[in-house]
Write a structure and sequence with these properties.
By secondary structure, this protein is an alpha+beta fold. The chain has five helices and four strands, in the order H-H-H-E-H-E-E-H-E. Helix 2 packs across helix 3.
């Protein structure tokens, strides 16, 4: 889908504040409220806007430890392992990466004891996982909240 400059301005405004009203967005881009509503609906219909959501500060929600994992998996078990890990509420995101059947995973837990339990019970005990490498976040400088134009 080809986006014009107005679509890009709408998306930029929504990326900054997804709660802006159609009236506020219309003022920002110089269109009527109805035209903005139609454009946003079209962006949703075309799959450009997947969903509207809120970004929660995990630390304020009690998740003090944030860690990334590189998990190598036997190729024949990749889909099953990935789905099982994706179903775990401590897993914030999981992606299949290039390389030898590698999963990249972000995990949020309350403390280091919970992280140790996660590693021992949710990773090391899973059939098909061949290697686990972890990195713990010390400080966040920027977090992905969506594609920026």
């Amino acid at each position: 889908m080809k986006l014009d400059h107005i679509d890009k301005k709408l998306l930029a405004a929504l990326t900054e504040d997804g709660r802006l009203s159609y009236v506020d967005l219309a003022e920002k881009v110089g269109l009527s409220r109805v035209a903005v509503k139609d454009r946003i609906q079209n962006l949703k219909d075309q799959g450009v806007i997947e969903k509207f959501s809120v970004v929660i500060n995990s630390e304020k929600f009690g998740k003090q430890v944030s860690a990334f994992f590189e998990v190598d998996v036997e190729p024949m078990q990749l889909q099953e392992v990935a789905q099982n890990l994706a179903d775990n509420p401590q897993v914030a995101s999981i992606y299949q990466m290039t390389g030898p059947s590698t999963l990249h995973m972000h995990v949020l837990v309350e403390d280091f004891q919970k992280l140790e339990v996660f590693i021992n019970k949710e990773l090391y005990s899973v059939s098909g996982i061949t290697r686990v490498e972890s990195s713990i976040i010390l400080k966040r400088f920027k977090s992905r909240t969506g594609f920026k134009l």
